[in-house]
Amino acid sequence: MTAMLEMRNVSKSFAGVQALRDVNFSVEAGQIHALVGENGAGKSTLMKVLSGVYPAGSYEGTIVFEGEERRFRDINDSEALGIIIIHQELALIPLMSIAENIFLSHPPSKLGVIDRDEVYRRTRELLAQVGLKESPDTLITDLGVGKQQLVEIAKALSKRVRMLILDEPTASLNEADSAALLERLMKFREQGIGSILISHKLNEVARVADHITVLRDGRTVDGIDCRAEPIQEDRIIRSMVNRDLAHRFPERSAKIGEPVLEVSNWSVYHPIHPDRQVIKNVNFGVKRGEVVGIAGLMGAGRTEFAMSLFGRSWGTNVSGRIALEGHEIALTSVAAAIDAGLAYVTEDRKQLGLILADDVRKNITLASLKQVAPGRVIDDIAELKVASDYRSRMRIRCSDVYQETGQLSGGNQQKVVLSKWLMTDPKVLILDEPTRGIDVGAKYEIYCIINELAEAGRGVVVISSEMPELLGICDRICVMNDGAFVGEFPGAEATQEKIMRAIMRNERSNGNGAVEAAEMGGSQP
Amino acid sequence: MTDKTVSLPEERRHGSFIKNNLRNYGMLMSLIAIMLFFQVMTGGTLLQPLNLTNLVLQNSYIVIMALGMLLVIVTGHIDLSVGSVAGFVGAVAALLMVTYKVDYTLAFIICLAVGAAIGAAQGYWVAYFKIPSFIVTLAGMLVFKGLALAVLQGQSLGPFPSTFQKLSSGFIPEVLPEAGTLHPTSMLIGAVLALGLVYASAKSRTREVSHGIEVEPYAFFLGKSVVLACAVLYFTYLIATYRGLPNVLVIMSALIALYGFVTRRTVIGRQIYAVGGNAKAAGLSGIKTERLTFFTFVNMGALAALAGLVFAARLNTATPKAGLGFELDVIAACFIGGASAYGGVGRVGGAVVGAMIMGVMNNGMSILGIGIDYQQVIKGLVLLGAVCIDVYNQRR
């Protein structure tokens, strides 16, 4: 059988970072092709190249679709040929009806006036095709996530579809909705539509995929023909994570002391969907001088857990107990959390960590202005001295402390954020993706800082999606999945495969586990 | 650490200093240029003592409200209701003092409290209910315009007790023997103020130098101090040759100094800018963003009330039309003065200069006999132009 899509030797880099290297990828008509890999392996980048989000010329290599070489300038070009991508974040307009959403860009019309009868007739057809029993008039906001996903697919089908790309389509669906969606996918296969399925859930992949391609660090590292050989999850996991530790980590001799932070029976609900329990009655602790890693896939609930601890800055209906240095405390606001000795370095330093238009000095002192402001009046010279002190201690490269933080590189911005939190003299620091978007040299410096913090007797929690990083710097690694801790390893014993296996084991039993946890949460006061 | 300041060649330092400060002083230069222009065009009428005094009296309430509006805009909000609130408070003042013969001090305090309460009511919806300030204060604008009409029953109400009138039309009492047309007390205050300003900036410069902080080049410092002192002295001289310093100018100057200090040097000031710059980051740094937003509105309400009292005292009557359109002048003053519509940026000095630019243009164009029609066209274009220049400068 000849391939419907062939991507040959595709390479793509962003500002010096190689996201894809010589990737070869092909999909046949009527095939479900699964694309798996770790966060940041290059799956989304590859799909953006295919759909024209990254236009021809911005990458190397060729795309051949239905026998011809294609050079897509934008997403409209690929859609015209029937390559439809459905993103993880749904692109529906919540306050419009199903029908309006499906025919948003090209509504059937006569002389520029939308033909409502035709819109409704075709919407009903499409909804029947995807198996969604809803009136075309229903507003998107009144639908659950699973049904919204089906509307997205119906929207895709309203165009001419030859190839459907689904990015983590079941990430936010429950078991039944996921099964229904996969069923739908198999129907499309019968109609000769090619599908690319990006998923972390290997059990789903095993159920429907005809072929599996594993990406790692921007390369294709394995291809499995599922019709020819039985699927071995171990092999997939090994392919996904097995790599040399590319980074070096500073030497570390841990002197671990008394527990400094203890969290028990912590439960958090989603702020917009208050019936969804995001953190499911978890227990967690850090000791003085200890670096604890939290591993997990995107959406596992790690950031939500950290932010809910930090003065309930995320979620509703937060319950559970926190004890700092053995004393139980209630942290009902961020200010209270800071005063108690907790610091949270956000994963999104531009949106949540820094005031980019303000200078380095103002950003560093923002969370502890009282220290340089006796009587609520800022002593600008004391402030300048503190800021300059951090600048030299953390080796922040800037022209002076009056430079706008928006002008600094990612690594230096991160050091400014770290300085801000060090100035609050925290007992426990939670670092959320502390090296995201930072070059290798600056990463090493951040690791050194983390070591120094632990050596000074602080408890450090590192949330990271880069497993080698966790393995390199942590004394203990906790694995989170679907809002619960599903594994824990001492740093010396942990391996990427063990972590991945803990996640995958949990993903498989997800449906039951989630229900049980939700019931337990429901009985809590 | 800080004690090794990099010393650039003198010339380059001057160059970079001018570039860095152009934005801060740009609007002040524009104000001076506009004043010179009208001074020449009106054949010297603009800076005549009588006209200058009137200029201050006419614009005092705009400046007072601009101080509060600046904080509101810095937090990323807007208050459209200030004109109506000022008018309403003027009406309440008339009701209390004229109809019910309440003592003017008590009435004054009640009016400020009413203003603060109005600000609190609006700030509550904006800060805690997250209703866009544009909508809340648009509603407030209608409500208080209507309430002013209701309180006054469509009639003008006056006159006020003479002591209350002094708030706007009074001048500081003369305690020294008069010397011709010059009022020596006012002149003395001006001289003390000029010397005080120079002394304070010299002291802060010495302090910075002693800590090894890079400061502006000495020539600039000297030049700036001399120009500042001369400007203050000349301005007081002009005012002193008419009837001396108006009471309202004293109040206004004290407020400008207070708000300048609060925004630049205090924790609460810094936090207000942080909320406007990035509310989420500020919140995650332990700043109580909602409470701060709420207080900027309370503050705005109180200042709008003060402005309403000043305006009523000046007209010596409360009219249902008082305060009409003030909000536009006040908001324009802040934006002309360099505040950003996205929040986080803006200076008290800028807002004051912006208000004075509007005031001088109103006054100058009236003297020149330009009709109210084209005055508005020109003011609108100046507002657009000033903001365009600002946006252009930021992109560079």
TrEMBL record, chain A:
Its main location: membrane. It is a peripheral membrane protein. This is Sugar ABC transporter ATP-binding protein. GO terms for molecular function: ATP binding; ATP hydrolysis activity. InterPro entries: AAA+_ATPase, ABC_carbohydrate_import_ATPase, ABC_transporter-like_ATP-bd, ABC_transporter-like_CS, L-arabinose_ABC_transporter, P-loop_NTPase. Residues 5-242, 261-507 form the ABC transporter domain. It holds the Pfam family ABC_tran. GO terms for cellular component: plasma membrane. It is found in: Cell membrane. It comes from Bradyrhizobium cytisi. Keywords: ATP-binding, Cell membrane, Membrane, Nucleotide-binding, Repeat, Sugar transport, Translocase, Transport. Belongs to the ABC transporter superfamily. Involved in beta-(1-->2)glucan export. Transmembrane domains (TMD) form a pore in the inner membrane and the ATP-binding domain (NBD) is responsible for energy generation. The keyword Transport applies. Gene3D superfamilies: P-loop containing nucleotide triphosphate hydrolases. PROSITE patterns: ABC_TRANSPORTER_1 (PS00211), ABC_TRANSPORTER_2 (PS50893).
From TrEMBL, chain B:
InterPro entries: ABC_transp_permease. Keywords: Cell inner membrane, Cell membrane, Membrane, Sugar transport, Transmembrane, Transmembrane helix, Transport. It is found in: Cell membrane. One of its GO terms (cellular component) is plasma membrane. CDD domains: TM_PBP1_transp_AraH_like (cd06579). The chain crosses the membrane at residues 22-40, 52-73, 80-100, 106-127, 134-152, 181-200, 221-239, 245-262, 292-312, 324-345, 352-371. PANTHER family: ABC TRANSPORTER PERMEASE PROTEIN YPHD-RELATED-RELATED (PTHR32196), XYLOSE TRANSPORT SYSTEM PERMEASE PROTEIN XYLH (PTHR32196:SF32). NCBIfam families: GguB (NF040906). This is Xylose transport system permease protein XylH.
